[in-house]
Every structure is written in C-alpha cells, then in structure tokens.
C-alpha cells in the first residue's frame, strides 16, 4: 500500500448511496476511484459468463485472482467499468449478479485474492474507496473513514424508482426483503463483516438528499 497517497473510505450497506457519492467525491477531489462492491460483482459476472457454479469457492477464487478490471471516470455522467476490455457497467447491476456478489464475497479465498489488488489502487493523488470493509480491513489506516447508512425501506424505495425508470417490473416488498436478507448476510459473515470502523464518521442518509450528504462528507474530510 502506498502510504503517501491519501485514502478516503466510504463503507455502508447496499442502496445507501455510497456509489454515487464516491464518484462525486472522486471527481471533486481529482482522486482515483475504487468500487470494491463492483469487484465482487465482476467476479460473479465472470463466473456466470464462464458457467462456473458460484458454490465452487476454489474456482471462483481463481477467477478473482486473475480479474482484469479498470474503473474509468472519463464519462462525465457516470463511472464506467471495463472487464477484460469489455464495458460491463450495466451488466453488473443486474439483481442476479448482485446476489451472486454477496455470495462470493463471503469466500475467504475470493477476499484474499482481491485484497492486495484493492490496496494497489491507493496511488497519488489519492483514492476514494467504496465498499463494505474498506475502513476496517482493506485500508485500516485511511485518512478519513465514512460509514453511510439508511433504513432498508428508504434503500428499497430508491432501488424501486431506479428499476421502474428502466421499465422493469418490481415489487417493493420483495426489494425490502432482499435488502434486509443481504444486510443480514453481510453483517454476520465470518470474514470482514459489514460494520463501521471504530473511528468512522457515521452518516444516516435516510432523510437526506444526495447534495446534503455530499456537503456533510466534504465537511468531514476537511
């Protein structure tokens, strides 16, 4: 890990808005971006594409160890993700891939394979690291640690609006259950469970707008 490069970690559960806010901060500060959640989605997507059973930890871990991924902020609207040179930004956001990501993230072999890869992103001028264990496991000595959360209902509503805007048919109650189930898995897994670092600044975005949270984060960083 390059200790000369400042690192800001943003952890939190799915749907808390940390992805959008991480991109906003990276652009504002001119920092690099690490979407660690996308790494697990990329592992799951790669396994699915190769028809590998997600229950096969060894095979999935081998995929993680050779993952070729690039995060790009060249597009002004949203970050783009390249897997083996292929643009897969939308593909990894499918619900099936998200559930698969939560599954493979619990494997010690996958986490070990991706740990050093994640730390390699910490280069000048700095890094915004978005995930679930950035401040606790990957970058325990980060300059600033933020933990963004929101109620399951608020996160489900945000996801519902997002999916409906894309023309998809979804059930809000099922989304709430899926999010609650994912929270329970992530919080209770044996390796790097989802929790705030002891020195993290916790921000509850349930009743806040994106701009309000962004301002709060900038204040915490300063």
Helix and strand string, N-terminal first?
EHEHHEEEHHEHEHHEH
How many discrete structural domains? 1
Shape: globular
Tell me the span between the first and last alpha carbons: 23 Å
Number of strands: 8
Low-confidence region ranges: none
The radius of gyration is 16 Å
Strand-residue fraction? 15-25%
**Helix content range:** 40-55%
What would CATH call the architecture?
3-Layer(aba) Sandwich
- Largest beta sheet: what is the strand line-up? 2-6-1-7-8
CATH class: Alpha Beta
The total count of helices amounts to: 9
Structural class category: alpha/beta
Q: What number is the mean pLDDT?
A: 90
Task: Characterise the protein shown here.
The chain has 222 residues and is an alpha/beta fold. The protein has a single domain (7-212), classed as P-loop containing nucleotide triphosphate hydrolases (Rossmann fold, 3-Layer(aba) Sandwich), CATH 3.40.50. 47% of the residues lie in helices and 15% in strands. A 5-stranded parallel beta sheet has the order 2-6-1-7-8. Strands 3-4-5 form a 3-stranded antiparallel beta sheet, covered by helices on one side. A hairpin with a 2-residue loop joins strand 4 (80-83) and strand 5. The longest helix has 17 residues, at 172-188.
């Amino acid at each position: 890990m390059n200790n000369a490069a400042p690192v800001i970690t943003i952890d939190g559960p799915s749907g808390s808005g940390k992805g959008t806010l991480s991109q906003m901060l990276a652009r504002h500060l001119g920092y690099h971006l690490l979407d660690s959640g996308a790494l697990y989605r990329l592992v799951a997507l790669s396994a699915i594409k190769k028809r590998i059973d997600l229950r096969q930890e060894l095979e999935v871990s081998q995929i993680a160890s050779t993952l070729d991924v690039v995060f790009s902020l060249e597009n002004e609207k949203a970050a783009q993700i390249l897997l083996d040179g292929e643009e897969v930004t939308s593909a990894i956001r499918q619900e099936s891939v998200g559930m698969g990501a939560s599954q493979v993230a619990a494997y010690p072999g996958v986490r070990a394979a991706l740990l050093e890869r994640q730390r390699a992103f910490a280069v000048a001028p700095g890094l915004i690291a978005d995930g679930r264990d950035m401040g606790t496991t990957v970058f325990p000595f980060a300059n600033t640690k933020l933990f963004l959360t929101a109620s399951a209902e608020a996160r489900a509503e945000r996801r519902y609006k997002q999916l409906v805007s894309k023309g998809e048919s979804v059930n809000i109650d099922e989304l709430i259950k899926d999010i609650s189930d994912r929270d329970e898995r992530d919080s209770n897994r044996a390796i790097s469970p989802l929790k705030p670092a002891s020195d993290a600044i916790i921000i509850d975005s349930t009743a806040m707008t994106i701009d309000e949270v962004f301002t709060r984060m900038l204040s915490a960083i300063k």
